[in-house]
Specification:
The protein is α/β, with parallel strands linked by helices. The protein has two domains: 193 residues, 3-Layer(aba) Sandwich (Rossmann fold); 149 residues, Glycogen Phosphorylase B (Rossmann fold, 3-Layer(aba) Sandwich). It has 14 helices and 13 strands. The strands form two sheets. It has a seven-stranded parallel beta sheet with strand order 3-2-1-4-5-6-7, with helices on both faces. The chain has a six-stranded parallel beta sheet with strand order 10-9-8-11-12-13, with helices on both faces. The termini are far apart.
Length: 381
């Protein structure tokens, strides 16, 4: 008798988050034992943030689009995302329940998805639980999602140990590494000529990628923080490509300053960058500046330096390709100048894996298909 095909619903609400799913979906495409759908929500559906659902459509047609949520820069709006995600997903799960719900990270919409999956008794696979970021509400949200989830896939050994410390059974926890690093094996890097023409840049000169988000514990300081960053860039006149922040409260203050700054010849800003374009630019850049997790998680694998600003990523495990600085234009300026004149990094930083996570993840799914044991959780002391 032929075994039933396992159905996984992947939930994604954030632009960069989908990149981590792509290698897993590619691995599923090679399997005849698993099928999937992608539940698309929140920022992906917003024109304000580049309507990145269109990029997902280029990858797959197996999509379930949740109700669009109005973009508004308020705390109440982010809270409404949780309730509206729960309501929208209840309609989805009333029609059909998957064998697994696959979640990534620590955002409000992901917490809403976790609550929905738990109440529908759907085993939840959580990617990157156990990570530490002590600079905002993401920290508490991530740990809450971990306690709801049934299988844990961590990005590094430290996070693997952290999940066990919060009372999860050992057999549920797997250290698989960072799945986005698998992209390096088959991503198509664009040529210098293509990038220079499309983005109107000169890659014979240093390039900075800037991704700076608001900090949920410092919402009122968002404007001041981005101004310190832009002052440093303006002083050095280094060509810079900035990407819009995510939709956490305080994002509008950052975008407003970008709009004032975009007339500078050396500065360009985009709502979003398509996956191949982003990693191609990172490949040719000198450093990534801001407070994005990409600077810590991925830059080392790409042999790139990162300047991590402020407290947003405080507590993440990182190595010596990452420099931690306060929001101070003089210190930022000095460090950028120093890095521009540094030699290239020779060896990859492999703290978050070797780029072989997706196959590990699929093997774990195939070997854990015992729903009763997965759903019934114990707290281990």
């Amino acid at each position: 008798m032929r075994k039933k095909t396992i159905i996984i619903y992947f939930f994604t609400g954030k632009r960069g988050g989908f990149n981590h799913f792509v290698p897993i979906l590619r691995e599923i495409d090679l399997s005849n034992k698993i099928d999937y759908k992608i539940i698309v929500a929140d920022m992906h559906l917003s024109s304000f943030f580049g309507k990145t659902v269109n990029e997902i459509k280029n990858y797959s047609k197996k999509l379930i689009l949740l109700d669009k949520i109005k973009t508004k820069d308020t705390i109440s709006n982010r809270l409404s995302v949780i309730s509206k995600t729960i309501t929208s997903l209840s309609k989805v799960f009333d029609k059909k329940k998957p064998d697994y719900l696959f979640l990534l990270g620590d955002r409000a919409e992901v917490l809403g998805a976790a609550i929905s999956g738990m109440h529908y008794n759907i085993p939840i696979i959580h990617l990157y639980g156990g990570d530490i970021t002590q600079g905002g509400t993401d920290e508490s949200t991530r740990h809450a999602i971990s306690k709801i989830s049934n299988i844990h896939l961590t990005s590094n050994y430290h996070s693997y140990k952290n999940i066990k410390k919060i009372g999860e059974e050992s057999w549920r926890v797997h250290n698989v590494g960072l799945s986005s690093l698998d992209l390096f094996k088959y991503i198509y890097f664009k040529s210098k000529i293509y990038l220079e023409k499309k983005f109107k840049i000169d890659l014979s000169k240093p390039l900075i990628l800037l991704i700076q988000h608001s900090v949920t514990w410092q919402v009122d300081e968002s404007k001041e923080q981005i101004l310190e960053t832009l002052k440093a860039i303006d002083k050095l006149k280094v060509q810079t490509i900035a990407i819009y922040p995510c939709s956490d409260p305080g994002y509008q203050a950052i975008i407003n300053e970008y709009k004032k700054f975009k007339n500078k010849k050396f500065f360009k800003v985009y709502k979003n960058l398509e996956l191949n374009d982003f990693y191609s630019l990172l490949n040719y850049s000198k450093l990534l500046l801001g407070n994005s997790s990409c600077g810590i998680l991925e830059c080392g694998f790409f042999k790139k330096y990162a300047i991590n600003l402020g407290i947003r990523q405080e507590g993440r495990v990182c190595l010596n390709n990452v420099y931690h600085l306060p929001h101070n234009s003089n210190k930022i300026c000095k460090k950028i100048y120093e890095i521009i004149n540094k030699p290239k990094i020779k060896d990859r930083v492999l703290l978050y894996g070797k780029g072989n996570s997706a196959k590990k993840i699929i093997d774990i799914v195939l070997n854990n298909h015992d729903k009763k044991n997965l759903i019934k959780k114990k707290f281990v002391i």
